[in-house]
Amino acid sequence: MLDLLIRGATIFDGSGRPGRIEDVAVSQGRIVPAGGSAKKVIDAGGLALMPGIIDLHTHYDAQVTWDPRLTPSVALGVTTAILGNCGFGIAPCPPRLRETMLKNLSVVEGMDLDALLAGTRWEFESFADYLAALERIRPYANVGVLAGHSCLRIAAMGEKASVNKTPTASELEMMKVLLREALKAGAAGFASSFSPNHSGWGGLPMPSTISSDDELKALTGELKSHGRGIFVIASGSRATPEYLEAIAADTGRPAFMVTVLTMHNRAAPGRAMEFFQRCAGAIGRGREVYIHANCQPLSFDFNLRDPYILYSHAAFDRVKAAQPEERTAIYRDADFRERLRHNFLKPAQGILFYGDWSQVEQDGVPVTELARRAGKDPLDYVFDLPLDTQLVAKLYQNDDAAVAPLLKHPAGVIALSDAGAHLIYFCDAGYGLHFLAHWVRETGTFTLEEAVRRLTSDPARKYRIPGRGTIAPGNHSDLVLFDPASVGVSPLERVRDLPGGGRRMIRHPRGVHGVWVNGVRVFNGKDYEALPAGPGVVLREFSP
Q1: How do 391-396 and 298-302 pair as beta strands?
Q2: In this structure, are strands 78-83 and 142-145 parallel, antiparallel, or unpaired?
Q3: How many CB atoms lie within 10 A of CB 202?
Q4: Nearest C-alpha neighbor of 280 from the set 405, 410, 179, 161
Q5: CA distance linking residue 334 with residue 342, whole number of Å
Q6: Minimal CA–CA distance to 14: which of 440, 515, 453, 478?
Q7: Could you report the per-residue pLDDT of 76-86, keeping only the tens digit for each?
Q8: How far is CA 300 from the centre of its chain?
Q9: H helix runs in 324-447, sequence order
Q10: Half-sphere exposure of residue 293, counting CA atoms within 13 Å on the CB side?
Q11: How far apart are CA 28 and CA 239, in angstroms?
Q12: Which segments of 56-148 are extended strands (E)?
């Protein structure tokens, strides 16, 4: 007898083929030919069925230890999540460095430190122990974990990881051994960051951002030896497409770049497409170099108490090292403001905000307009505000006509939700449902069948995740049942549901009627299912 039979839905199987009305059957967590009776039958006439969304760029590394449901991603159609992006995570981690690891994570990924300290369940030390702990946790979604460069540096170098650019020979060897062990245990690959936006606790840089090219090459060499796994880096301006092509050529592994340089920005309107074309050239030469492409406008809620988008400017070195109560005095300092103006005139590449205050709003009104009314320069207006005044910076991917060609480009992979991170600024965990709503239904930029392919089988193929991303006999039964006419995401909602009462932004699904992971329904369209244990598995096996 079948475990599940879904009747009458229009199937978008992830291959890119047109939808077709067909029954889908599940037995023991796998798709099987339909036929015979079933324990559970769902009449899905008028709805669409697709494979579960594969989210390649999340930061659930700590949250999953206290929240196996991976909220809100699972309700938003995500059935497989990749953790450890940008080289940040919590394993391997010697016990004496746990607080250091969480403090860095709280700053670089905009997380509530009190929630991290209260909620993180430290039932592991090594990377292999971490994967085993996830298996005991039994998450609601499948999870794969990248071995992180900054984690390796902290484990090998301790507090010196964010200070010493060059490790000793023994420290580098320890990093290589730890990475080797992680890959052997089942890491999805290796992640790093060169991003100037990635600062850690006390204003210090995140460890990987100060590492040398020789160190990175020594570590990516472990991917070549292993013969499996991908490489992904928050590249900044340093890891160019050509830089990644050299790594892909040396290791024989796919390489992925994540940077705002590949997002549309009206200050440099042609730059993003240039990056995609350079990656396409590498692909044409037989080296897989891809870009994590963001399908949503990149906006940040922020205030002057925690001005994340400005941290990459040198003027903010004082701010990052200061206590929150000391920041007002710094902002009032004329020298600070002059230094920031100079930073805006000569900005480094890869930063988030270039000083165009018309992109920043307060209560829906551009700062430039509010400054005009107050008779002030926009920069002075902003830094005269109380610390807790909420601002919204609408920075990248805000022009549909310019963004559409980037999303369609074969050198991209739809990703970059950052789910689990920057929780007080935004929640982009519903990027897949937004893609179906905005880029399919509202603008007609993609057909539904192509959009589903880009959210499912395309990321599975590029990240070498076997058996997922398509509805086909023998594949794992990760499924989303939805209404194409209403699918989408809600506006942002601010809640206090983190450990210790910490706050975050979340979104809710619209038009989703059910989510299944390995054949088990985890979300019923209104709420998460109350399960004794989640059906998700820890991904340890990846294709060559």
Answers
A1: antiparallel
A2: parallel
A3: 12
A4: 410
A5: 12
A6: 453
A7: 999 999 999 99
A8: 15
A9: 327-332, 334-345, 367-374, 378-383, 400-408, 431-434
A10: 28
A11: 44
A12: 78-83, 142-145, 147-148
Strand 360-362 relative to strand 391-396, pairing: antiparallel
What residues contact 365, with CB distance under 8 A and at least 6 apart?
A: none
123, pLDDT greater than 90 = yes
- Give the DSSP letter string of 292-306: EE--S-EEEEEBTTB
Laid out side by side, the sheet with 147-148 consists of 147-148, 189-193, 230-234, 255-258, 289-293, 412-414
For residue 299, the model assigns a pLDDT of 77
Q: Give residue 73's identity as a one-letter amino acid code.
A: S
Q: What is the CA radius of gyration of the chain?
A: 23
The strand ranges marked E within 133-212 are 142-145, 147-148, 189-193
pLDDT exceeds cutoff 90 at 366? yes
pTM, two decimals, is: 0.91
Is the Cβ–Cβ distance between 72 and 432 less than 8 Å? no
- What is the chain's length? 544
pLDDT surpassing 80 at residue 300: no
**Cis-peptide into 95, omega within 30 deg:** no
Tokens (6 digits) for 9 = 């839905």
Edge-to-edge order in the sheet of strand 479-482: 20-21, 10-11, 48-51, 479-482, 512-517, 520-523
Tell me the C-alpha to C-alpha distance, in Å, between residue 149 and each of 167, 219, 231.
13, 9, 11
User: What pLDDT is attached to residue 164?
Assistant: 97
- Phi and psi at 43, nearest 5°, equal -85, 110
Residue 14: predicted pLDDT: 98
Angle 98-108/149-157 helices, nearest 10 degrees?
A: 150
